[in-house]
Write a structure and sequence with these properties.
The protein has 295 residues and is α/β, with parallel strands linked by helices. 48% of the residues lie in helices and 13% in strands. It has an 8-stranded parallel barrel, surrounded by 4 helices. It binds 2-(acetylamino)-2-deoxy-D-mannose (MN9).
């Protein structure tokens, strides 16, 4: 069975500080209600690139404790500050995280050699597995098939979190590396990713839409492509509505509707406006209320 991971959010207080109770509540909801296979901690959805190292450590620790071995965990430790990335890699490995991930270094247009060194350096002093976090739309970094192959020369690099709409490349990676772990990162493109053979998916909207996504995966695995597509369409109506209302604040507002205090986002992300709250309530009424929380 292919795995479904939520990209964990970070709950913030009004003053921008991290609300660890809110983080724990989202972990609980993912385990108890979503029956999720795992969590991707410290990714884009976690607003990680706006946090300091102590905040990141506190989140990794709280999540590890709250999950208490019930689900898979992947810790995203990548940072433009490689000293921090290496320290976080050691920290989460010592905590017991069974897998880490690191975003491709961004902003400075690093060469591939530099990117490769970054990964090998992060892994140099930790005994752990790593999935490369590839998200060209946000990092500006696109890796080719041969470059993925070169990264895979390090045996600790076991896969990719692939957040990229290039399904030709994804198919080529799958074909060349049947044993690598490929996790799809765009929730609205789960079905095309399944069709080229990913091992699972990681996404922000699964925090509130995991049950439907799991039914889609089950339909796909049963060979019922028509049903899988119908479910992807339902999900995409929801995802389009969420994207239209401001992605991360809206997922937090939906959590609130579902009884989970997920706090707010950190600036420069938007604080929820009355209009966004009304929009989220409408989404909740349309997609959640009548179907008993999308079980
Ligand atoms: O983890 C997420 N990427 C970002 C992947 O948030 C940048 C996705 O789950 C998207 O949020 C989602 C909506 O576009 O597919």
């Amino acid at each position: 069975m292919k795995k479904l991971y939520s990209a964990l959010m970070t709950a913030f207080n009004e003053d921008g500080s991290v609300n660890l109770d809110g983080v724990r509540a989202m972990v609980r909801y993912n385990i108890d209600v979503n029956h999720i296979d795992g969590l991707y901690v410290g990714g884009s959805t976690g607003e990680t690139f706006m946090l300091n190292m102590d905040e990141k450590k506190a989140i990794f620790k709280a999540v590890y404790e709250e999950a208490n071995g019930a689900i898979d965990l992947i810790a995203q430790v990548g940072s433009l500050n490689i000293t921090e990335a290496k320290e976080l890699a050691r920290y989460v490995t010592a905590l017991g995280y069974p897998m880490i991930s690191a975003v491709t270094p961004f902003y400075y247009n690093f060469t591939f050699e530099q990117i490769k060194n970054y990964y090998n350096e992060i892994l140099a002093d930790v005994d752990n597995k790593l999935v490369v976090y590839s998200i060209p739309a946000l990092t500006g970094v696109s890796l080719s098939l041969d470059q993925f192959a070169e990264l895979f020369e390090n045996p600790k690099i076991v896969g990719i979190k692939y957040t990229n709409p290039d399904f030709y490349l994804l198919e080529r990676v799958r074909e060349r590396f049947p044993d690598k772990l490929l996790l799809s990162g765009f929730d609205e493109m789960l079905l095309p990713a399944l069709s080229v053979g990913v091992d699972g998916a990681i996404g922000s909207t699964f925090n509130v839409n995991a049950p439907r996504a799991k039914r889609e995966i089950a339909a796909f695995e049963a060979g019922d492509n028509e049903q899988a597509l119908a479910l992807q369409r339902e999900s995409n109506d929801l995802i389009a509505a969420i994207l239209n209302n401001d992605l991360y604040p809206t997922i937090k507002l939906l959590f609130k509707e579902l009884g989970v205090d997920a706090g707010i986002c950190k600036q420069p992300m938007s604080a929820p406006t009355p209009q966004m709250k009304a929009g989220a309530h409408e989404i909740y009424t349309r997609f959640f209320q009548n179907s008993g929380e999308e079980k």
